Amino acid sequence: MLFLVAALMLFGVVLGTAAHVPPTVTAVMAAVIAAWLGVFALRERHGRRRRTSAD
Q1: Residues of 13-42 as b/e, b for ≥16 C-beta within 10 angstroms?
Q2: CA distances from 50 to 9, 41, 53 (A)
Q3: Residues contacting residue 30 through CB under 8 Å, at least 6 positions apart
Q4: Angle between helices 2-15 and 23-50 (to 10 degrees)
Q5: Calpha distance 11→19 (Å, rounded)
Q6: Predicted pLDDT at 43
Q7: Where are the alpha helices (DSSP H) in the chain?
Q8: Among 23, 27, 28, 48, fewest CB within 10 Å belongs to which?
């Protein structure tokens, strides 16, 4: 997942809107996205553990 964030950040710096903002802003936004994806992954994993096989 972190590889995906790094790859998207690299593509953004080279090709996208991130090329027009300072690198620190890009890095902060990449960290925010990584945290968001991490929270999502934890919620998904926790949600699947709570379900029973009868569902």
Answers
A1: beeeebeeeeeeebeeebeeebeeeeeeee
A2: 34, 14, 10
A3: 5, 6, 8, 9
A4: 150
A5: 9
A6: 92
A7: 2-15, 23-50
A8: 48
Token pair listed for 43: 């919620």
Which two structure tokens, joined as six digits, stand for 21? 């903002």
Over its C-alpha atoms, the chain yields an Rg (Å, rounded) of 16
Cβ atoms of 18 and 26 within 8 Å: the answer is yes
Task: Check: CB of residue 51 under 8 Å from CB of residue 45.
Answer: no
Q: How far apart are CA 24 and CA 10, in angstroms?
A: 13
